[in-house]
Backbone:
């Protein structure tokens, strides 16, 4: 593992409740920059719930209650002093289903910089849009039709547009909630390549149901089961030599 | 399916199965026929309605005029040449125009002698003819002493006879027009001095006691002002309420109760809203009676539930993924609403609003309660002037004893339908214009 820097995100003793339903139990997890961390586990095990805790997307669910601490660069993100709007810019998110805004491709990418006031003039905004689209590998495909609607793109392109939109606000962490589950194998391969490229600049957390995908793109893997992390470690270690029986059963397809 | 069927060949080819198939197709055909006939009945009803309104109403837009050589008798006008313009206008307004017309008609029909007959002769023209003579004098004072051919408005009875609404075949006692009047009209007709045209007055003046002089403009302007007040009050409040309830309000007993009440309010009879307007706006706040302001406020109360309910449905129809995307980008809740949810739900909100407004345009009962049912001749100039509204005008005319108001009633209905179609067309156009696909 080339990256040995201190963890950017440290989750300690995190518990999440939906009313009486204890969805996440005592989860500890470190997420480092320059690393892709995969969260795997059977459906309903709390992977996505945990992911959404990291940028406080669960705030909008009234019945959701969170205890424990999650820190970003040593700062508790559930602290009252934290501005949740800024937090979500620092911790970007890509969703399961591509969800570009029904606006032009340009406006999709420019939306984040606009609301956060990143660009002083239109030339700077153009530059941000250009670099974001280039980083997401979409520039060559859309450079001639920046004014057409983002929803007119194909599924894989839409998802890359969503990634471009996210990196346009220069986040530190990108959360991906099953980003390829709605895509065909070719589009998936392109996104996976993209994740590999983005790894050097961002910490990436990816929830996936595909064992192969987790093995291909991640350096660290956490196995969730019924709201708990049963095993967390280097991906190569987990996939070749799992220490817990349940993990072994799951990744070999005997369970889940 | 029994084992025997399976062993004796495919179950799909048995007689029983064929029968079932036939039955299924027959049921489908019956269902289709019932649906189609329902549609046909509906269309027929609509066609009958439209045809009956248009056949009686279209003549309301036409008028009859009689070409009379009016002798501008200086002895009656008694104008002094040294008057300035204002004084002359004032003087011309005081002239006995009725006598001018009567004398001219007597010159036209010299054998009419008795007082009764002269009165009957005079009644061929409308009271509005006097105003036309006066206007002629004011426009051009040099016509004094000359004989000028003028197209004077015919009375409602003559108008109806010319339009064929009074038959000359019935006995004199059971029609409003006498045999003598018919003879005079025949003479005028033979000389080509009965002129038919479009009744611009109907579209450009207020109400009148005389059918041939009554116009729809006063009511139309009253409706317009009322709807303007309704829109300005109900649209922002309705949309804001919808956004709050749908996106911000916590789910608890209170919001549940508010929601139930809003839904119930949409079904409250409109006259109740009229009573509410009467009690609050007139009795508590002492606002002017019969004013579009009060009418608009009352109709706004009535329209609010409709706007809130349709707006909430439109907001709910925006996919949650769009909200997640915006929040995930770090947009605040208000930014999410203003940048994404509201623009996407706008077509639905506008459609709902216009449908609510169209409903308000056709509403009569609440306006009766707040005094917009009065006989008002002047076209209102502001939201504080006394006014009436299109449906109320229709109600007033339909209630009127004069037969001439029958065609005016239908004509007013045509005007109201025109505005309704216009508003619905606007709703469709806006929906297409603002619609975005994803």
Residues:
């Amino acid at each position: 593992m080339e990256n040995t820097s201190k963890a950017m995100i440290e989750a300690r003793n995190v518990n999440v409740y939906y009313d009486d339903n204890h969805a996440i139990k005592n989860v500890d997890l470190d997420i480092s920059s320059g690393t892709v961390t995969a969260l795997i586990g059977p459906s309903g095990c709390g992977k996505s719930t945990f992911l959404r805790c990291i940028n406080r997307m669960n705030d909008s669910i009234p019945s959701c209650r969170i205890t424990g601490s999650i820190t970003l660069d040593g700062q508790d993100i559930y602290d009252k002093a934290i501005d949740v709007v800024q937090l979500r810019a620092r911790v970007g998110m890509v969703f399961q289903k591509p969800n570009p805004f029904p606006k032009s491709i340009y406006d999709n990418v420019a939306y984040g910089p606009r609301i956060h006031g990143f660009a002083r003039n239109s030339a700077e905004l153009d530059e941000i849009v250009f670099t974001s689209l280039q980083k997401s590998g979409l520039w060559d495909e859309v450079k001639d039709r920046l004014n057409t609607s983002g929803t007119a793109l194909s599924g894989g392109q839409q998802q890359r547009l969503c990634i471009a939109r996210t990196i346009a606000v220069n986040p530190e962490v990108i959360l991906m909630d099953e980003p390829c589950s709605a895509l065909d194998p070719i589009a998936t391969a392109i996104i996976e390549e993209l994740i590999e490229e983005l790894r050097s600049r961002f910490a990436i957390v990816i929830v996936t149901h595909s064992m192969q995908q987790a093995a291909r793109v991640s350096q660290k893997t956490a196995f969730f089961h019924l709201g708990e992390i049963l095993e967390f470690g280097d991906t190569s270690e987990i996939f070749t030599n799992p220490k817990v029986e349940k993990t072994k059963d799951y990744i070999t397809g005997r369970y889940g | 399916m029994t084992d025997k069927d399976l062993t004796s060949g495919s179950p799909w080819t048995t007689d029983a199965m064929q029968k079932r198939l036939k039955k299924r197709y027959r049921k489908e055909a019956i269902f289709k026929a019932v649906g189609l006939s329902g549609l046909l009945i509906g269309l027929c009803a609509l066609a009958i309605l439209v045809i009956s309104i248009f056949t009686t109403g279209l003549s309301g837009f036409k008028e009859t005029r009689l070409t009379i050589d009016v002798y501008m008798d200086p002895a009656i006008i008694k104008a002094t040449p040294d008057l300035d313009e204002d004084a002359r206008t004032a003087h011309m307004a005081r002239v006995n125009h009725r006598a001018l017309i009567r004398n001219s008609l007597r010159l036209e029909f010299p054998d009419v002698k008795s007082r009764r007959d002269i009165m009957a002769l005079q009644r061929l023209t409308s009271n509005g003819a006097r105003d036309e003579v006066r206007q002629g004098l004011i426009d051009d004072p040099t016509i004094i002493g000359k004989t000028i051919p003028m197209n004077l408005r015919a009375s409602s009875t003559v108008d109806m006879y010319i339009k064929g609404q009074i038959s000359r075949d019935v006995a004199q006692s059971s029609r409003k027009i006498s045999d003598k009047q018919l003879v005079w009209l025949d003479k005028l007709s033979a000389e080509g001095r009965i002129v038919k045209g479009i009744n611009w007055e109907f579209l450009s003046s207020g109400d009148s006691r005389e059918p041939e002089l009554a116009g729809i403009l006063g009511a139309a302007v009253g409706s317009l002002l009322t709807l303007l007040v309704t829109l300005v009050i109900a649209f922002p409040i309705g949309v804001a309420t919808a956004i709050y309830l749908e996106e911000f309000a916590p789910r608890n007993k209170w919001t549940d109760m508010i929601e139930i009440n809003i839904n119930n309010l949409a079904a409250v009879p409109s006259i109740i809203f009229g009573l509410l307007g009467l009690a609050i706006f007139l009795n508590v706040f002492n606002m002017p009676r019969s004013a579009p302001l009060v009418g608009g406020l009352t109709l706004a109360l009535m329209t609010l539930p409709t706007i809130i309910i349709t707006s909430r449905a439109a907001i709910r129809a925006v996919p949650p993924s769009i909200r997640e995307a915006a929040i995930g980008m770090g947009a605040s809740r208000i930014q999410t609403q203003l940048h994404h949810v509201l623009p996407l739900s706008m077509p639905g909100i506008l459609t709902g609003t216009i449908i609510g407004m169209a409903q308000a345009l056709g509403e009569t009962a609440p306006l009766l309660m707040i005094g917009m049912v009065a006989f008002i001749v002047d076209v209102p100039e502001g939201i504080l002037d006394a006014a009436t509204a299109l449906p109320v005008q229709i109600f007033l005319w339909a209630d009127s004893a004069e037969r001439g108001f029958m065609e005016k009633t239908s004509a007013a209905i045509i005007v109201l339908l025109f505005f309704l179609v216009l508003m619905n067309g606007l709703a469709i156009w806006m929906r297409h214009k603002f619609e975005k696909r994803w």
Notes: Chain A touches chain B through 27 residues (CB under 8 Å).
